[in-house]
């Protein structure tokens, strides 16, 4: 699967805050794989779909998307999904197994949210609903 590009990089005095650029790599996937079960992923996506009440074809920006574990399921549910993340390793993992209909993988930096959202939704209107989901890693 082809990964799009969006260049928004931190520079100057805040550059030391970029520790995450090298943290979210293939080792991250190995270390955290036990947390990312299919059942858990499906339960989390089902909850978001229930709370947000999104119609089929709704545009969704999953950011930071990581390996697109949620984004793939949103697309599978009939949504138009852009998965944005800075980690090429995680996006490469997301692209394994071929293309997922309704899903675009985009390499970019979310530190400029307005620009990232505008880029992700450049083909049309921005989403009408914003849903923030925080998952407790202690829960299965």
Structural class label: alpha/beta
Q: Output the strand order for the largest sheet.
A: 1-4-3-2
Question: What's the rounded overall pLDDT mean?
Answer: 75
Architecture, according to CATH?
3-Layer(aba) Sandwich
What's the number of helices?
Answer: 6
The count of DSSP E runs of length 2 or more, i.e. the number of strands, is: 4
Low-pLDDT residue spans: 4-10, 132-140
Task: Name the beta content range.
Answer: 5-15%
Share of helical residues: 25-40%
Overall geometry: globular
Number of domains: 1
What is the assigned CATH homologous superfamily? Vaccinia Virus protein VP39
What's the end-to-end separation, in Å?
Answer: 30 Å
Sheet with most strands: 4 strands, parallel
Describe this structure in words.
With 140 residues, the protein is α/β, with parallel strands linked by helices. The protein has a single domain, classed as Vaccinia Virus protein VP39 (Rossmann fold, 3-Layer(aba) Sandwich), CATH 3.40.50. The protein contains 6 helices and 4 strands; from the N terminus they run E-H-H-H-E-H-E-H-E-H. It has a 4-stranded parallel β-sheet with strand order 1-4-3-2, sandwiched between helices. The protein starts with a strand and ends in a 20-residue tail after the last helix. Mean pLDDT is 75; it is low at 4-10 and 132-140.
